[in-house]
Amino acid sequence: MKTTIVKIVDPIGIHARPASLIVNEATKYKSDITFNVADKTANAKSLINLMSLGIRTNTKVTIKAIGFDEDQAINAIQKVMKDTKLI
């Protein structure tokens, strides 16, 4: 299991366009990938699940991946989030 914590800096938070890019990236990996905020958890491979978290600016998000390609999955998702200026 690999986890990382990121802080969302985008003024809108995680909205539809970057969320869809995260989901597209997450689906490339076999690992189970989740986003956790407070007491809510969402499957990173589901746009509806991810959007249901309602992640706003300055929110800390824990990203967890479990599987043989967990390191690559976490790194790739963080890259997408940096490229879209979410973090």
Descriptive keywords:
87 residues; alpha+beta; four-stranded antiparallel β-sheet
Rg (C-alpha, Å): 11 Å
Q: H/E order of the elements? A: EHEEHEH
Low-confidence runs of at least 5 consecutive residues = none
Portion of residues in helices? 25-40%
* Count of alpha and pi helical runs: 3
Instruction: State the secondary-structure class.
Output: alpha+beta
CA(first)-CA(last) distance: 22 Å
Morphology: globular
Summarize model confidence as the mean pLDDT: 97
Strand arrangement across the biggest beta sheet: 1-4-2-3
Number of strands: 4
Task: Report on the biggest sheet.
Answer: 4 strands, antiparallel
Strand content: 25-35%
Summarize the structure.
This protein is an alpha+beta fold. It has helices at residues 16-26, 47-52, 70-83; strands at residues 2-7, 32-37, 40-43, 60-66.
Task: Walk me through the topology.
Elements: E1 2-7, H1 16-26, E2 32-37, E3 40-43, H2 47-52, E4 60-66, H3 70-83
Antiparallel strand pairs: 1-4, 2-3, 2-4
Structure description:
By secondary structure, the protein is an alpha+beta fold. Helices cover 36% and strands 26% of the residues. The protein is built from three helices and four strands; from the N terminus they run E-H-E-E-H-E-H. The protein has helices at 16-26, 47-52, 70-83, and strands at 2-7, 32-37, 40-43, 60-66. The protein has a four-stranded antiparallel sheet with strand order 1-4-2-3. Strand 2 (32-37) and strand 3 (40-43) form a beta hairpin. Helix 1 runs antiparallel to helix 3. It is globular and about 35 Å long. It starts with a strand and ends with a helix.
